[in-house]
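Sanity check

After download, print the first record. It should look like this:
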Amino acid sequence: MTTTRGNRVRLILFVLAAVLLTACTPPNLPAPIAPTGGSSVSSTPPAPGTLVVGLDGTAGSITGFNPYAIADYSPAAQAVASLVLPSAFVMAPDGSIGTAADVVDWVAVTSLEPFTVTYLLDRKASWSDGTPITAEDFSYLRDQLLAQPGTVGSAGYRLISAIRSRDAGKTVEVEFSQPFPQWRTLFSPLLPSHLLKDSPGGWSSALDSDLPLSANRYRMSSYDAVTGQITLARNDKYWATPPGPAAVVLRLGRPSDLLAAFNRGDVQALWFAPDARTAQDLLDQVPADRRTTVATPSSIQLVLNTQRGPTADRSVRTAIAAGLNLDQLSAELTAGWPDGGRPVASQVALPVEDATDSSPPIVTDDAAAAADDLAAAGYTRNGLYVARQGEVLRLTLGYPSGQPRMAAAARQIRDQLGAVGIEVDLLPDAAPDLIENTVATGDLDLALVNLPRGPQDDAAAATAFGCPRTDPRGLGSVVTTTPRASGGTTGPTTVPTTEPTTEPTGEAGADGADGAAVRTGNLSGYCQAGTQQKLTDALTGSGSAAAADPALWAQLPVLPVVQPQAVFAVSPALQPVLDTTHPGWSWTGPLAGLASWPSP
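Expected structure tokens:
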């Protein structure tokens, strides 16, 4: 098994350093500040023209800035990616999706047989180190999303059968093996392939602490993990209209501290999920026309391993659901704030897409039903826990460390399942290690994780529940690009199609340590032929993901608990930002359009 983040090496170095410091540090000194990002809110006044936004730091420190890594997802990382990285398409606040005109001059479906989309990239579009944005960035992204564990939105990329580079990489032809109506969801954002290919750790660790290059209106100039402050400066190499605010400071902190700073005028906007007490303070102190509640594009789920261990048995999975009180879990995950989350009643759609809240169509919080399901799986209870053939049903539940609300919910799950006879061991771990090295390799029974997704149900469902494949490309797939020449240019303008291959050109192979398929977006490993066909039909435009929903609830590869929500509040000068309709914020976050806000 490949360690994707290099955490083992860092852990060894950390332990050695701790030993040396313990031996050399004088006594009676205060404890060092832990890099939580939620310990304080800076009161240092920003430079003129700088917009300061307060972000929730109670969810733990930022683990990375890769927008396609499930482990790196956070509102802060999402905001940074939208302001620093280029995209082929962008979503407006009203929810409409349009071409990113500064990056793509023209794009259209240019062939139906085979289905082909052609992009003409802006000649001036380039990364902040001067390297042009080219077809190589498209190819690199596609290769990695099909091979790397724990990624977002890989399903559409599986349909790509070829990527061709022409005109020095400024013309990109993307050929699909089948029609793909949602092709506008792809390649947004793009990553700097030339940097990631050459950096130690590449995809896995090059973006752990920052986004080194920009091809958008802002560049990331610094991130202080101790104070939790991210600074974005105007990208002087940007070729189009400059942003309104000259610089942006994203300050992570406790919601109560951020609210106090907001009231003092030190912070111009807030984007956080308060606890019940801070939420009431917010209602009392910020007028209704300067705040709104926005859903996040994710759901907190209990992922069940459908391929290995006791949870491979459907009856055990339904017993787990029956043993859990989802309302209590939601209360822990939202810190008692009534508007902090919405119940999830669909496996393929988020509540934000439905005007009504409803409960999941399964049995929960029913000890008798849990006992019946466990009996169906061959378990009997003669004491505290159920057992089969003398072996106690014992499961391991992993969750991201450094996140108090997730930890509280994990303890609730342990206690609730213990009440129905299932013993649960808790395994807190850093999110990258948990998701990419343990869950995605099928080495964990249960995992409580926050899973982000895109706005298209069909692509999201096919990513989350499509069968993992040992062939990461798909049938008849090949990616071709022109070789990079010195100076950042490309060679021949036309590349002949090569023979199909079953190995990606990226940094990771397709197989796990035991030869099983690495789970890219499908963390449960679920694979069922009938469901797979429904998902394929939905992805290619001949069906809908909703058709797969009943089977997914019956099989229960994951148990959605809640879709988190957060408050977005602005100062009086920014009130016009709230005056327009903004359903698109539920997918992009409210900071995606920050570059067009007025300068403070």
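If your output differs, re-run the checksum step. Summary of this record's structure: The two ends are 50 Å apart (CA to CA).
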